[in-house]
């Protein structure tokens, strides 16, 4: 952290190569990346970001091999949920979805409905984004929901009867092969990990028409700005390999007040800015996800090039520490 704060790229490199973890945190939870950023060491921020992304891409490849077939949110999917005012809670009182996300859902809906074609939303939750999608003129609107009680709630609200809407009960993993293609897709599940979203991304070359737009709830590593940047960059690179061009639009967030989280066990958002992803499927796309998966090791080892757009944005934020 001292080397990063001082902008000493050689010392940072030597430490990383000697095994110093890029994600080590000090007593206050700050990382070397935040120290470098806080003292304006742009080159070192990029160096740490590149190292972190390569390391995490490799680890992701390994962990996917190890966990094949397991269902991370099996307990959640078979337990009770409750709609309490402006929150959807699971059996552990953890927030599945909260009303403060409404402006974000509005923006996600605008992005995926821009072409007005066939639109898919994965994860109904409180149906906030579906309400916004319904305000756009789309050709069709498909919703996938895995939890039986959430599905029942959606039916109670009449979503199964709406003209142009198809409400599908099941995990996306089990039903996606029968659906598509689409012009706009939004992905926001609960109790799954980045690796599950990675698996969903692998389906995009077949699911999304050329020129189609994909977006996802960008809650990746939401308790540390540098971790959040790293995962945003990982997603951007993985999507690029699959033929999608990603940009992130910063939206100031107002969900930090204590009252927002009263009665909710898991505070799942900690940052002052939310980066809305817009990922556009290019005309020239990778033939299929399988071929793309075979490239994974190469991607993990590839030398990083260019600054990420998120990095630009981060430098406009006040330093997390100094
Ligand atoms: C955060 S909520 C979605 C909120 C939604 N975007 C809204 O605007 O209200 C996540 C939803 O994904 C559902 N879900 C979890 N795993 C899923 C899976 N594998 N396939 C489909 N839905 C899933 C959960 O039951 C939950 O309803």
UniProtKB/TrEMBL annotation:
GO cellular component, one term: nucleus
Domain of life, source organism: Eukaryota
InterPro entries hit by this protein: Ankyrin_rpt-contain_sf, RMT2/GAMT_Mtase, RMT2_dom, SAM-dependent_MTases_sf
MF terms (GO), sorted A to Z: S-adenosylmethionine-dependent methyltransferase activity
PROSITE patterns: SAM_RMT2
Region (Disordered): 298-322
Biological process annotations from GO: methylation
Positions of the RMT2 domain: 67-284
Key words of the record: Methyltransferase, S-adenosyl-L-methionine, Transferase
Transmembrane segments: none
Alphabetized PANTHER family for the sequence: GUANIDINOACETATE N-METHYLTRANSFERASE
Name assigned to this protein: Arginine N-methyltransferase 2
